[in-house]
Amino acid sequence: MTKSLSKNNLDEKKQFFIDMIAKFCDKCGTPYTGSDLEIIQDTNLSSIIHFSCSNCKSNHIATFIKPMGISNRMPINTDLDVEEIGKFASRKETSVGEILDVYLYLKSKDSIVI
Ligand SMILES: [Zn+2]
Questions:
Q1: Looking at the record's lineage, which domain of life comes first (predicted)?
Q2: Which pairs from 66-75 meet CB under 8 Å and 24+ separation?
Q3: Which of 55, 51, 53, 63 minimizes the C-alpha distance to 105?
Q4: Lower Cβ count inside 10 Å, N or C end of the chain?
């Protein structure tokens, strides 16, 4: 009974995020499956999810702010960005303001190299 998150629950959660945030890859239109998602942070307030397309390998970071039902998604280039977001997410409590800081931080690094 110590396991709080069974595999089924995790799959359900991922499917929820696919339904709420993005069903298809922006770039090539490939449908996302649970294995394409990595939940970086999940609290009562907000979630940060990494979407990775199995077809074209493009990466997106999505945030979902639960009280407002708002989601936002932006493309990222490397796994490094995921680590950077993980640093924010590893804080015990992340406020909506802090998540917006992550947005602004990533937006400020607007140099997208393909
Ligand atoms: Zn794709």
A1: Bacteria
A2: 67/96, 71/20, 71/21, 72/103, 73/21, 73/22, 73/26, 74/103, 74/106, 74/107, 75/26, 75/112
A3: 63
A4: N
Q: Say which residue, 14 or 106, is predicted with more confidence.
A: 14
Q: Is 111 helix (H, G, I), strand (E, B) or coil?
A: coil
What's the pLDDT tens digit per position in 55-84?
Answer: 999 999 999 988 888 898 888 876 667 777
Q: Cα-atom radius of gyration of the chain, to the nearest Å?
A: 14
Tokens 């977001």 identify what position? 85
Cα 29 to middle of ligand 1, angstroms: 6
Cα(53) to centroid of ligand 1, in Å? 5
Contact 49, 65 (CB under 8 A): no
